[in-house]
Amino acid sequence: MTIDYRYDVQLPSSYDPEKKYPAIFALHGLGSNEKNMMGLLDGLKDDFIVIGVRGNLSQGSGYAYFHIKSIGNPIREHFDQSIRELERFIRCATDKYAIDPGRRYLLGFSQGAILSMSLALVMGEQLKGIVALNGYIPAFVQHEYPHQSVKNMSVFISHGEYDPVFPQQLGDANHAYFRGLSNHVTYKTYAAAHEVTSDNRRDFTLWLLQDANNNR
């Protein structure tokens, strides 16, 4: 299968194609790009295969995975297509690189967090875990998408307490929703707006390093 998305990949310095490595698929926010996400993951590049995926739609000077009608209201056709194509991308990248299929993570900010949480429900325990930074779960994903079990999935959710784009109540709702489905949910809030703080970055970096070595 060919890979349709543009992407950046960072392989561990000691990369051996005969071994299997945990992998992080990083999904950016609206109007951003894959390079911005790669910069958040410097502390993980020695231990993980890190893949920053560029949205395939133009959005200002950057990119998007789907367009929106309004804040919190994705265009359903775009969204459904992105879910299908990203799931396919994950499978293709797993075949192309020395990725351990039992240790695949999604990490997303804003639009990327929306997709990470949605893909978690669609793919279930084909993923080891997700990191969702300042996002929400669309109502149609909760009520209309077919869901797989995420009981044993590791979930890290964070949100800015002063986020003017997606209020903290959405982060609280994300936490409550996944807490009802998974036995392994971490939720943190930060005195921040719609952004990733250094404390947030430190916390999810440590969480990922620990979780990837957990043989649960």
TrEMBL record:
This is Esterase. Signal peptide: none annotated. Gene3D superfamilies: alpha/beta hydrolase. Belongs to the AB hydrolase superfamily. AB hydrolase 2 family. Residues 21-199 form the Phospholipase/carboxylesterase/thioesterase domain. Keywords: Hydrolase. PANTHER family: LYSOPHOSPHOLIPASE-LIKE PROTEIN 1, LYSOPHOSPHOLIPASE-RELATED. The keyword Hydrolase applies.
